[in-house]
Amino acid sequence: MTAVPRPLLLIITMSLATHIGFGGSRVLASLFALHLGASALLIGIVVALYALLPLFLAVRAGQLIDRVGLRAPLVFGGIMIVAGLLVPFAFPNLVAVCVSATMLGVGFMAWQVAAQTMTGTLSTSETRAGNFALLGMGFSASGLIGPVIAGVSIDLLGYRIAYAVLAVFPLVALVAVWGFPRWIPRRRLAESRGERRSSGDLWRIPALRDIFIAGGILATAWDLFNFLLPVYARSLGLSASAIGVIMAVFAAATFVVRIVTAQLARRHGEPAVLVGAIFCAAAGYAAFPLANGAVALAAISFVIGLGCGCGQPITMTLIYNLSPKGRAAEGTGIRVMINQLTHVVIPITFGAMASAAGYVAVFAGCAAMLFGGGEFFRRSAARRARARAPQDRDPGSPGPGGGTG
């Protein structure tokens, strides 16, 4: 087994600490807004604020990382996350929750793009899928820990102190990247400085475009779960601690499936695994209306977590591999931008739907969207495979993805 580089272990550990604060805050923000009297629509707006500015900044952040390196975005991201968590601690009201969500979204966007690019930089073509799975496992572990810490802190200490508790974890990561930067590698600068290239060039690569879309579909399922589960579980009378545990079950599923994601991709191929992941999440949402208690919700959350958790490392790997040389962070930025678009649109759209038509309509709508998206990606992948087959039989032809990676 290939040894994992020490800088990779450090960035995974620091990303885990950062994501504990970020992931826990998403549960905390929804429950705190609900406590302050917000409607489902207003809670959807709060959740959407996490993604509003990253939607417009993610691609530029990727381009900047390709040019200036990794440390500055990591430091900036850590500062924004810590500060964002302390705003509601200082001013416990709905306006502060909205400001916090905006700051946290920008901060984690910068950290995420830099951390994913650093993981790809520290990997070879043979180790990249496994290393991205390790990074994903770190995010999964923090996704398990963060909601539990948030829920228990709310029940024991109250909403305001819970924000301060969560801020401790990203503060550790900020100290590590600001005060001890030698473990952060220097990135190779983007190769073309004179020619201004558009991010639309990456979108026009068919294989990349399909991966961007598939990642956005899975991000929709993930984000809707983070938004809807606390509100729906609260409507069933569950406590904050119980909600935190249910969300931790979701995170546990993402962790478990990432242990075998690389093996699944080698055995069945990345497109097939992505299709299966989307359909798995769709099946979970279709079963949501059948749940009326904590155990059933936990079981459904586990199924959705398997689907969402499996797809993310594969999309990260393929985007890094398929992006042109020197533009990997830009490709990651496009992926993040598309994900943020779903984070903005989905909570508001489905929050309004929940207010007007109830939760069953929301679950059915999301399941239908996922089933449709999975079928579209399945057919698209099959068409590309058929088109590539004659080239694969030609010894002189490039392999899959040739010329783009």
Commentary on this structure:
- This protein has about 400 residues and is mostly helical.
- It has a single domain (about 5-180, about 200-385), classed as Growth Hormone, Chain: A (Up-down Bundle), CATH 1.20.1250.
- It contains 14 helices and no strands.
- Helix 1 packs parallel to helix 5 (about 130-155), helix 2 packs antiparallel against helix 13 and helix 8 packs parallel to helix 11.
- The two termini are about 25 Å apart.
- The model is unreliable at about 190-195 and about 395-405 (pLDDT under 50).
Average the pLDDT over all residues and give the rounded result. Answer: 81
How large is the radius of gyration?
Answer: 20 Å
Percent of residues in β-strands = under 5%
The helicity comes to over 70%
Uncertain ranges: 189-194, 395-405
CATH architecture type: Up-down Bundle
Terminal residue distance: 25 Å
Task: Profile the largest sheet.
Answer: none
| H/I helix tally | 14
Overall, the morphology is: globular
Q: What quaternary form is this?
A: single chain
At the first level of CATH, what is the class? Mainly Alpha
- Estimate nothing, just give the exact number of structural domains: 1
Number of strands: 0
CATH topological fold name: Growth Hormone, Chain: A
Global structural class: mainly alpha
